[in-house]
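Design a sequence for this backbone.
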C-alpha cells in the first residue's frame, strides 16, 4: 500500500491532462506537488487553477535542460520522495512521407524514454533518502498492441515498460517502490481535440490510478489497457488488428 499523504511529488508533464488532474487529487490529499512543462503559458494557467503548485519550465527532450532541472530539484526540494514520469509527446505521422520524421523521432524518444531514465538516475539519491520513496512511470495499453498511426510513441513506451520492469528488479531489496501505470485512450489535450470514441475522462483515469496505488499494485492497468493486455495474451494478432481499427 502506498502512502498518498504528506509527500513531496514531482510530476512531469503536469500542466494539463492526466498530470494536472493527478496534481489536483494529490494536493487535495495534503501533498506538496511540483510540476514541470515546456510551456510557461500552460504552467501559469495550471497555477491559476491550483495556486499551491510549484512549477518549473523545462524541455525534457533537451538532455542538458533535463539534467539542470534535476539539479534544481535536488537543491530546492531535498524532501522529494515521489517521482511521476508522466510527460510524453506523440507524432501522428507517416514515417515515409513526413520530411521531419527523424527529428520528431529523436524528440519523442528523448521525452518519452530518455528523460524518465535520466530523471530516475539523477533524482534517485534524493528520493531514496526520504520516507515512502516511489518512482511511478506512466505508459500505455499500446505497449501490448501498437497503433500504426503512432510510429514512435508505441515503441518509446514499450521501452519504458521494459526499463520499469528491470528497475523494479534492481531495487527489489531497497525501500523505493517502482510502479507502472498503463492508461488507455484518455480525453486530454494530448489528442489535440480529436480523441478516439473509446477515450475515458481524465477524472476516471486518475481515479483508477489512485485506487491502484492505494492498493499497493506495482502494475496498474486502467480501463481498456486491462482488456487489451488480456486479449494480447490470448490472441495477439486479433488485439493488433482491433487496436488499429479504432476511430
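Sequence:
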Amino acid at each position: 500500500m502506498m502512502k498518498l499523504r504528506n509527500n513531496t511529488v514531482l510530476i512531469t508533464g503536469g500542466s494539463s491532462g492526466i498530470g494536472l488532474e493527478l496534481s489536483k487529487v494529490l494536493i487535495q490529499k495534503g501533498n506538496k506537488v511540483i510540476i514541470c512543462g515546456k510551456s510557461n503559458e500552460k504552467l501559469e494557467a495550471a497555477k491559476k487553477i491550483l495556486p499551491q503548485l510549484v512549477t518549473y519550465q523545462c524541455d525534457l527532450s533537451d538532455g542538458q535542460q533535463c539534467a539542470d532541472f534535476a539539479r534544481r530539484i535536488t537543491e530546492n526540494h531535498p524532501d522529494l520522495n515521489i517521482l511521476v514520469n508522466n510527460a510524453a509527446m506523440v507524432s501522428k505521422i507517416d514515417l515515409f512521407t513526413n520530411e521531419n520524421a527523424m527529428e520528431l523521432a529523436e524528440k519523442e524518444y528523448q521525452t518519452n524514454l530518455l528523460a524518465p531514465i535520466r530523471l530516475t538516475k539523477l533524482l534517485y539519491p534524493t528520493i531514496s533518502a526520504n520516507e515512502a520513496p516511489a518512482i511511478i512511470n506512466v505508459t500505455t495499453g499500446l505497449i501490448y498492441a501498437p497503433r500504426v498511426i503512432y510510429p514512435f510513441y508505441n515503441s518509446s513506451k514499450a521501452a519504458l515498460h521494459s526499463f520499469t520492469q528491470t528497475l523494479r528488479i534492481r531495487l527489489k531489496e531497497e525501500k523505493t517502490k517502482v510502479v507502472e501505470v498503463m492508461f488507455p485512450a484518455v480525453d486530454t489535450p494530448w489528442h489535440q481535440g480529436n480523441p478516439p470514441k473509446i477515450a475515458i475522462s481524465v477524472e476516471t483515469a486518475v481515479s483508477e490510478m489512485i485506487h491502484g496505488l492505494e492498493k499497493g499494485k506495482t502494475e496498474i492497468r486502467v480501463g481498456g489497457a486491462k482488456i487489451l493486455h488480456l486479449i494480447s495474451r490470448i490472441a495477439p494478432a486479433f488485439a493488433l488488428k482491433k487496436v488499429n481499427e479504432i476511430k
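The chain is about 45% helix and 15% strand.
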